[in-house]
Amino acid sequence: MTEAPARGRGARSRDAILDTAGELMARHGYAATSISMISAACGLPVSSLYWHFGSKDGIYVAVLERAQTTLLAALPPAEVPGRDLDERLEAFLTEVGDAFQRHQPSVRLLLGLGMVQQDATAAAVAEVRHYRDALMQWARDALSCVFGLRERPEVADELARFTLRMASGTAVARWFDAGAALETGPLRVALRALAAHHGVAVRGAPE
Amino acid sequence: MTEAPARGRGARSRDAILDTAGELMARHGYAATSISMISAACGLPVSSLYWHFGSKDGIYVAVLERAQTTLLAALPPAEVPGRDLDERLEAFLTEVGDAFQRHQPSVRLLLGLGMVQQDATAAAVAEVRHYRDALMQWARDALSCVFGLRERPEVADELARFTLRMASGTAVARWFDAGAALETGPLRVALRALAAHHGVAVRGAPE
DNA sequence: GTCTATATATAGATAGAC
DNA sequence: GTCTATCTATATATAGAC
User: Fold this and answer.
1) Residue A42 CB closer than 7 angstroms to strand C?
2) Partner B contacted by A196 (CB < 8 A)
3) CATH H-level, domain A9-64: superfamily
4) Domain boundaries, chain B
5) Cβ–Cβ below 8 Å for B29 and A29
6) Overall average pLDDT of the A110-127 stretch
7) The CATH number of the domain covering residues in B9-57
8) N or C: which end of chain A has fewer CB within 10 A?
């Protein structure tokens, strides 16, 4: 969206800046991360940061943009494999749990916007909204595939919302208790029960 | 913990400072809220803020402390009323949903610490940990009462964790979509299913 | 594209009169 | 306890040589 990601000398600097900025912002938050901190951490002078991104907010937007791209690109296809519901549900939960585990910094970064949303640029907010929408749609599609909900979009919607909120809540828990993982076991039971509650055929009781 | 809350001239100022500081910090986050902003918003000079709280961090701790006290005091007794499981579960969910709705700023404030945790004082972190622990214990006790889990503490634990994570996730959702409420309907279905999954007697199928 | 040097504003915090 | 005035550090951002 901003520029091609892989080129000569300047592009490497660009990436280095985004790497360290992302790491620092994920750890300290946007407001608490200063340009000088980023400069010191990545070795390039402040003026270079401004040459590349124009402003602190520009860096922020670029960081979010990249985190979003990375995270969305890593999502598996919404066509969850598996011949029956149980296999697909298992595959879905494994994928979600893994992605959640692998992309901790991105998740943190994107969640963190909440605390600065009021001050953030329209561009930054839009970036995160887009990310959120894309994630939601993916979850909806994947769950629709898992439970066969092509005719019941509102159910797919509820299940997706449920799943994402549980994931967000777990991310929050991780702020206090590093190492908190997405509990896919209870989530599986809950999703099955919710589907069944809406009259979706769920071969075999949850227990 | 810091001083008596209701006295003459100075105490009113103290409260005014905490009110506006809490509001600003809940909206912008800790780092993005400056002493001068608070001073301007509440009318008292910066030196008064320092006289009362010593430092910006002191204000933060006091704000968290008060938010915690308020929130915990508002929690209903863990002895959830109701003659059968369904009545108690309903009462529990209503209470949680209401508290969640009523105390939005406190929740936001306490969640927000996550983003500054790395830099925050030990005192601030301890404050939030204590809050979190108290909330968790309350949920555990209440759910234990709802489902009759005195002999199954690990199940009560799982249900409480599940509930709190869902609540946290919903708080996050509210950052993007104001007006997002705790969906007690799906939560009820999920909790019943989880209890049943662990062999707890849950008279009547969830649907 | 990267560097040194710097402009300008505001941050957190204090001094001391009242 | 509250005020005005101020110290010092650091923030974002720019200028201009290389």
Assistant:
1) no
2) yes
3) Homeodomain-like (1.10.10.60)
4) 9-57, 69-197
5) yes
6) 77
7) 1.10.10.60
8) N
- The answer, yes or no, to whether residue B92 has pLDDT greater than 50, is yes
Q: What is the mean pLDDT of residues B151-166?
A: 98
pLDDT at B115: 63
| Residue A67 in this model has a pLDDT that exceeds 70 | yes
Interface subset of A 63-82, CB within 8 angstroms of B: none
Using DSSP's 3-state secondary structure scheme, residue A178 falls into coil
User: DSSP letters of chain B?
Assistant: --S-SS-SHHHHHHHHHHHHHHHHHHHH-STT--HHHHHHHHS--HHHHHHHHSSHHHHHHHHHHHHHHHHHHTSPPSS---SSHHHHHHHHHHHHHHHHHHTHHHHHHHHHGGGTTTTS-HHHHHHHHHHHHHHHHHHHHHHHHHHT-TT-HHHHHHHHHHHHHHHHHHHHHHHHSTT----HHHHHHHHHHHHHHTT---SS---
pLDDT band, very low/low/confident/very high, at B3 (cuts 50, 70, 90): very low
